[in-house]
From TrEMBL:
GO terms for cellular component: cytoplasm. InterPro entries: HAD-like_sf, HAD-SF_hydro_IA, HAD-SF_hydro_IIIA, HAD_sf, PGPP1/Gep4. This is YqeG family HAD IIIA-type phosphatase. It comes from Paenibacillus pinisoli. SUPFAM superfamilies: HAD-like (SSF56784). Pfam families: Hydrolase_like. GO terms for molecular function: phosphatidylglycerophosphatase activity.
Length: 174
């Protein structure tokens, strides 16, 4: 059970993802969470740094879709200026939104990565769909909502079990 919470890769932020390596591995699509993955949960728009990164993503030949558990107003107002398709109220980790995202991208799971900051929603949902999962450190944990804080508590329990089984190492300790 806990193995499904293990991401394929862990990075500090989206900016640490090597797009050339992903492209060489046949990845052509990126499904990404929004809050605390791309920007802080209370940041209404993309930062200039994120806009540059998204331009690089597109120039490298990737298609992008945002899949968020947040509401349509929040996700739509963020995604519209960037011209990025999105799915709101996604109910991650259920598979429905991931299937819809793959249809929007026109890609198969083995051609797609899921980037997110939560093991209980982004990683679990992506792994269940056969996506390559990338876990980023949350940008602004202090701004998280109640449900995310509940998920973080569950993540701490899961991490303790994974560490005990020797399946999770803190960065730089392996």
């Amino acid at each position: 059970m806990f193995e499904r919470l293990l991401p394929n890769m862990r990075v500090h932020s989206v900016y640490d993802i090597d797009l050339n390596v992903l492209h060489a591995q046949g990845v052509r699509g990126i499904i990404t969470d929004l809050d605390n993955t791309l920007v802080g949960a209370k940041e209404p728009l993309a930062t200039p740094e994120l806009v540059i990164w998204l331009d690089k993503v597109r120039e490298a030949g990737f298609k992008v879709v945002i899949v968020s558990n947040n509401n349509e107003t929040r996700v739509g107002q963020f995604a519209a200026p960037l011209d990025i398709p999105f799915l709101h109220a996604a109910r991650k980790p259920t598979q429905g939104a991931f299937r819809k995202a793959l249809a929007i991208l026109g890609l198969k799971p083995d051609q797609t990565v899921m980037i997110g900051d939560q093991m209980m929603t982004d990683v679990l949902g992506g792994n269940r769909m056969g996506l390559y999962t990338i876990l980023v450190a949350p940008i602004s944990p202090a701004d998280e909502g109640v449900m995310t804080k509940v998920n973080r508590g569950l993540e701490r329990i899961a991490l303790a079990r994974l560490r005990k089984r020797g399946m999770w190492y803190e960065e730089g300790t392996k």
